[in-house]
């Protein structure tokens, strides 16, 4: 909008004399707050109007001032007396003033509302943040579970390769009188002489004890390796045994012994 | 502002300085001097009561008081009691604007803004009289004068621009 054109459009006179519509008044007040030029032009017209009115003053009856003074409740506050007083038509500046007050009130309400919203969003943020932490922890748990699964799967795949090797000789080892329910199996590769042990069923050893596999070679027990009970369910690679007539397992002190301590838990002949 | 502090002394100063100017405005709407002084009394009581609602950023104090006075005067002219009293006196509503005019009309036409408005072309003067001194809306004037609303608005604006130049 061209402010010079606006100033000379007659809107100033219309506004000051109270002839502008509500929309025109609102627009004028908004533009006045932005353009000093417009405020100056309004002020100039107001002054000329005021001067003209003062020059054309008509003295009211002398007694009127005293009548008014008697009529006014000097103690009453403006706001208190105005409420409930049917004061004719709303006056132009009064109306725009209450609009300004309304706006001020509205902005306070908006501020309060935004504070509430901030509080709400902050709580949302906190709870979302906690949820995120939980999800990260869960994700890490899943990842480590996945690693365990992958490892086990690799073990089973290896086991499967071993099982399906046609050179593999299977020695079933049966439970002896001290542990009749126990079963283990030795897979012995005739070509490479590698020995793998499958624990089918074997009681967990008491703490400080460990199972040890022996190869019986020409009547003499030869150490074939210690059992890792954490690998139950998979094939455990033991020591390479070139020749043996039987395999047996005894319970030894953790770390193993040079010669087996009786009794034998499981045994199988080749 | 001392007036807002309910300073009787300030209010007395205000009355002494502006009562005459405001009385003149009221007289231009309510030509009867006795009724006009009743309106003026109401004007000052209202100024006292409502001074808190005056916003200096929206205009000068006199402009605000002028509008209080004009509005109360128009309310008086529009009141049933006033309309009835005018009928009883056998005075047509447009009396103080008739060319032939009575003595009351003569004196009123020669004071304040009315004098300035008198310099306008008839088509402008009639509209300013209806809008400013009788308080009709542009829509009401369009109906009264049987003119398109746009024409009423344009004529009033152009009349106001001329008034501004006359007041300078």
Walk me through this protein's architecture.
The complex is a heterodimer of chains A (270) and B (168). With 270 residues, chain A is of the alpha+beta class. Chain A is built from seven helices and eight strands; from the N terminus they run H-H-H-H-H-H-H-E-E-E-E-E-E-E-E. Chain A has an eight-stranded antiparallel beta sheet. The longest helix of chain A is centred in the middle third of the chain and has 72 residues. Chain A starts with a helix and ends with a strand. Chain B is mainly alpha-helical and 168 residues long. Chain B folds into two domains: 92 residues, Rna Polymerase Sigma Factor, Chain: A, CATH 1.10.1740; 66 residues, Orthogonal Bundle (Arc Repressor Mutant, subunit A), CATH 1.10.10. In chain B, helix 1 crosses helix 2 and helix 2 crosses helix 3. The longest helix of chain B has 22 residues. Classes of the chains: A alpha+beta (270), B mainly alpha (168). Chains A and B meet through helix 2, helix 4, helix 5, helix 6 and helix 7 of A and helix 1, helix 2, helix 3, helix 6 and helix 9 of B.
Which tags fit this structure?
heterodimer, A: 270 residues, alpha+beta, Immunoglobulin-like, 3 domains, 8-stranded antiparallel β-sheet, B: 168 residues, mainly alpha, Rna Polymerase Sigma Factor, Chain: A, Arc Repressor Mutant, subunit A, 2 domains, globular, disordered N terminus
């Amino acid at each position: 909008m061209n402010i010079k054109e606006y100033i000379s459009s007659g809107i100033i006179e219309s506004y000051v004399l109270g002839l502008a519509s509500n929309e025109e008044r609102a627009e004028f007040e908004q533009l006045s707050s932005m353009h000093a030029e417009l405020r100056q032009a309004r002020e100039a017209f107001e002054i000329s109007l005021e001067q003209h009115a003062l020059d054309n003053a008509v003295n009211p009856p002398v007694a009127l001032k005293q009548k008014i003074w008697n009529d006014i409740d000097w103690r009453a506050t403006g706001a208190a007396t105005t409420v409930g007083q049917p004061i004719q038509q709303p006056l132009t500046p009064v109306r725009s003033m209450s609009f300004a007050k309304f706006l001020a009130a509205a902005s306070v309400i908006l501020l309060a509302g935004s504070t509430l919203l901030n509080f709400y969003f902050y709580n949302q943020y906190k709870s979302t943040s906690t949820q995120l932490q939980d999800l990260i922890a869960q994700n890490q748990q899943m990842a480590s579970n996945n690693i365990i699964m992958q490892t086990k799967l690799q073990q089973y795949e290896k086991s499967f390769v071993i099982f399906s090797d046609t050179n593999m000789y299977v020695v079933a080892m049966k439970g002896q009188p001290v542990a009749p329910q126990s079963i283990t199996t030795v897979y012995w590769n005739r070509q490479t002489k590698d020995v793998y042990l499958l624990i089918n069923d074997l009681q967990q050893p008491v703490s400080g004890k460990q199972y040890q596999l022996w190869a019986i070679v020409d009547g003499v027990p030869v150490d074939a390796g210690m059992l890792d009970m954490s690998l139950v369910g998979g094939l455990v690679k033991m020591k390479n045994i070139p020749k043996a007539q039987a395999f047996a397992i005894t319970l030894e002190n953790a770390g193993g012994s040079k010669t087996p301590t009786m009794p034998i838990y499981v045994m199988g002949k080749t | 502002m001392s007036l807002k502090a309910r300073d009787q002394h300030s209010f007395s100063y205000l009355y002494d300085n502006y009562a005459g100017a405001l009385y003149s405005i009221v007289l231009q709407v309510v030509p009867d001097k006795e009724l006009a002084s009743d309106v003026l009394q109401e004007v000052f009581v209202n100024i006292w009561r409502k001074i808190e609602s005056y916003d200096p950023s929206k205009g000068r104090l006199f402009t605000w008081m002028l509008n209080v006075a004009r509005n109360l005067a128009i309310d008086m002219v529009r009141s049933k009691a006033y309309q009835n009293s005018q009928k009883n006196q056998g005075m047509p509503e447009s009396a103080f604007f008739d060319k032939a005019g009575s003595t009351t009309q003569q004196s009123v036409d020669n004071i304040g803004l009315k004098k300035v408005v008198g310099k306008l072309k008839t088509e402008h003067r009639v509209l300013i009289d209806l809008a400013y001194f009788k308080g009709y809306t542009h829509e009401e004037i369009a109906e009264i004068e049987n003119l398109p609303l746009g024409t009423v608005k344009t004529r009033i604006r152009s009349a106001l621009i001329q008034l501004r130049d006359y007041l300078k």
